Give the backbone structure.
Amino acid sequence: MDCAVHGPFVCRANFSLDSYQSLFGELALLERELIRTLAIEKAQIPIEVYLFSDRATYETYLRQLYPSVPYRRALFVRSGNLGRVFAYRADALPVDLRHECTHALMHASQPMVPLWLDEGLAEYFEVPEHQRAFDSPHLASLRWNMRFGMIPSLRMLEAKSDLSEMGGLEYRFSWAWAHFMLHGPVDAHRELVYFLADARRGKPPGLLSSRLALAVPDLQMRFVQHFKYWKQA
Ligand SMILES: [Zn+2]
């Protein structure tokens, strides 16, 4: 068993973690990045990361621990005062770890995070930092959707309460709203920060769709324009 501590993460693996030092360095920076962009707080609960050498071991372990949870390539579970991330060694491990650790960090600071926002932020932060703004794999697909008149509805996303209701399109559209709030009008970004702050202080935050509609005039048009003109200078 290999064990290492990186930022708020305590990582345990049944294989050597020597070749993953730079990935863990990135994960430690992820918390700083979430604090910087979302003004959330440092993790208030410990986060344990369990890494398995192969899929079979991972699957067997998780089936015993969480028999009712459907199989997923990686998993975040909050149980009481502890966050746990599970994943296995594969090409997608860096993406999986950044994704699940984003969930873990959000839930280690926030008492609640709406499902679509949780997934939208995890999709945004799962790619390496230099790809997040301009090179997400979602960007081209989203533009293709929008060219055919598919404008992601935030209210539709807010109505989803279970992961089983989230397909590829819902993940992409959730990413799109996260991207819009992080890189679009400053009023949208501010509203996201205020929304998270209200939730953290125990003040009912309401719906982000309603708050954004008030904070950003012509919200839908601004959203469309954001992605129409978004490119690296
Ligand atoms: Zn997720």
Summary: The pocket of zinc ion is lined by residues 99, 103, 119, 122 (CB under 6 Å). The mean pLDDT is 95. The first helix runs from residue 21 to 38. The domain at 2-109 is CATH 3.40.30.160 (Glutaredoxin).
